Every structure is written in structure tokens, then in C-alpha cells.
Amino acid sequence: MKKLFFLLLVVMACGLPGHSQTNITHTLQNLEKAYQAEANATRRYEQFAAKATEEKQLQIAKLFRAISRSEAIHMKNHKAAIMKLGGKPGALVYEQVQVKTTRENLKEPIEGEKQETEASYPQFVKTARQEKAPAAVTTFTYALNAEAQHEKLLEEALDHFGKNKKMDYYVSNVTGSTIAVIPGNAAPRPVQKGEKFIKVL
Questions:
Q1: Mean pLDDT, to the nearest integer, of 79-105?
Q2: What digits encode the pLDDT tens for the residues 174-198?
Q3: Which among 70, 71, 68, 62 is positioned nearest to 165, based on CA atoms?
């Protein structure tokens, strides 16, 4: 009888459905927040690109398209991590986008990218590590590094507004890494397994 009671305790502690996920609650919540945020960022940069094209700021339009593609990869990665951890991605809720002039559209997201690189994603990574969720650590780290690139690219584009040099932009299909390359130079070399850097037109 004592052995049976002991076995029941072991099953209750280790084998109940859902128990393995009780320690990743915050990580799943953070993944959902990031998933929604990246979906909105993808849409927002698409609209910024259209505005830049309308204003004949073609180099900046290409930059916005590159960042939009990067954010879409982060969105896909976050969704995959949610599912891998046993969660279910929520229905996407899109916010209204305020499209202003291209100069303003460059300036506005810089603070958002800074917030993600200095606060949101570092905290998400820390929590995912504490809750032992490596899939989340990976996707959050990919996004963190790419958002830092976006911030720098946007700042440079704003600093040289009206005199922006022609550049090509390549985006990693795995990490969302966004790299500017002088036209005619080779694409960035892949680092991750299965990685390709796709040129944004």
C-alpha cells in the first residue's frame, strides 16, 4: 500500500498532463506578446515602404521592405516556438498604422527598436532561460540581434536623409538578420544551418 501511495505521488509530481508547461507560463506569454508585436511591425513597415516609394525615396523604401521581411521571420519563429512549447498562437490583432512622411516614418520606429533591444527582448531571453525554454531563448535572441541592426540602419538612413547612398539589403531566412551591402559585393555568408541571405528588391 505504501509503495502504491508513493507511486501515485511520483505520477502526480512528474507525469500529470500539462505539468511540464507550468514552469514556462511567462515565456509563453512573452512569445505571444512578441508574436503580435512582430506581426504589427511587419505590416507597419510595409506601409512605410509604400509611402517612401510614393515620395520617390526608393532607397529608404527598400530598407523598410527589408525590415518588414525580417520582422515577418521573427513572427514565424515566435509562432513555431509557441507551438513547440505546447502553446497555441492567438489570433493576430492588427493595430491601426499612422503613416506620416518618410522622414517621420524613419524617426518614429527608432525608439521602438531601441526599447526592444534594451528592455523587452533582453528580459524575454532572461525569463526563457530561467524557465528552461531553449526554443524561446533562440527565437528571442535572433530577434534581439536583428532589432539592434534595424535601429542602426534606421538611424543612418535618417542622418543621411535625402542623400542616402545606394545599398543592397540582405535578410537571413533563419534569424532575420538584416545586413546592408554595397551593390556588386557578395551576399553575407550563412552561419546557421539551412541559412540563406535573401536580397530584398
A1: 97
A2: 999 999 999 999 999 999 999 999 9
A3: 62
Widest Cα–Cα separation across the chain: 82
- The long-range contacts involving 104-110, CB below 8 angstroms and separated by at least 24 positions, are 105/48, 105/51, 105/52, 105/64, 106/60, 106/154, 106/157, 106/158, 106/161, 107/158, 109/41, 109/44, 109/45, 109/48, 109/150, 109/154, 110/151, 110/154, 110/155, 110/158
pLDDT digit string (tens) for 50-79? Answer: 999 999 999 999 999 999 999 999 999 999
At 10, list the grid cell. Answer: 511520483
Buried b (16+ CB within 10 A) or exposed e, 70-82: bbbbbbbbbbebb
Label residue 117 exposed, middle or buried (CB < 10 Å: 0-12, 13-18, 19+): buried
**Which residues fall within 8 angstroms of residue 31, CB to CB, at 6 or more apart?**
78, 81, 82, 85, 87, 124, 136, 139
pLDDT tens across 115-166, in order?
A: 999 999 999 999 999 999 999 999 999 999 999 999 999 999 999 999 999 9
Beta carbons of 157 and 63 less than 8 angstroms apart: yes
> And the C-alpha cell for 153?
540602419
Instruction: Name the pTM for this structure.
Output: 0.88
The residues, ordered by sequence, that sit 6+ positions from 163 with a Cβ below 8 Å of its Cβ are none
